[in-house]
């Protein structure tokens, strides 16, 4: 019986050591996962900042390009307006006839 008692104590001691080892490994794994999560968060934050800065640059570039296009189109529209006004002053009856014909065509298309 002494042998059985020693065997139980030995088994219990080994089980305790195994349990302690597993607990230590689990704690180490938790710590490693926490560090990994922090690293991923920091990398994600850096990447987000980089993407934000690049996006801001592109938005500013698009805004500048659109302002230039609007200015150019405005100039073209002003030139076209002057040209139409000059044509109407030179030929008022012909301009009135074209306007009536255009109105008639638009009315026909809208009926369908």
Automatic annotation (TrEMBL):
It comes from the Bacteria. This is ElaB/YqjD/DUF883 family membrane-anchored ribosome-binding protein. It comes from Hoeflea marina. The lineage of its organism: Bacteria, Pseudomonadati, Pseudomonadota, Alphaproteobacteria, Hyphomicrobiales.
């Amino acid at each position: 019986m002494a042998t059985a008692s020693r065997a139980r104590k030995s088994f219990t001691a080994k089980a305790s050591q195994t349990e302690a080892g597993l607990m230590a490994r689990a704690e180490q794994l938790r710590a490693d996962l926490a560090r990994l999560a922090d690293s991923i968060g920091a990398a994600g934050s850096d990447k987000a900042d980089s993407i934000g800065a690049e996006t801001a640059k592109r938005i500013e570039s698009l805004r500048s390009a659109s302002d230039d296009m609007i200015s150019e189109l405005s100039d073209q529209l002003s030139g076209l307006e002057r040209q139409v006004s000059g044509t109407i002053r030179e030929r008022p009856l012909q301009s009135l006839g074209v306007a009536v014909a255009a109105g008639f065509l638009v009315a026909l298309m809208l009926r369908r």
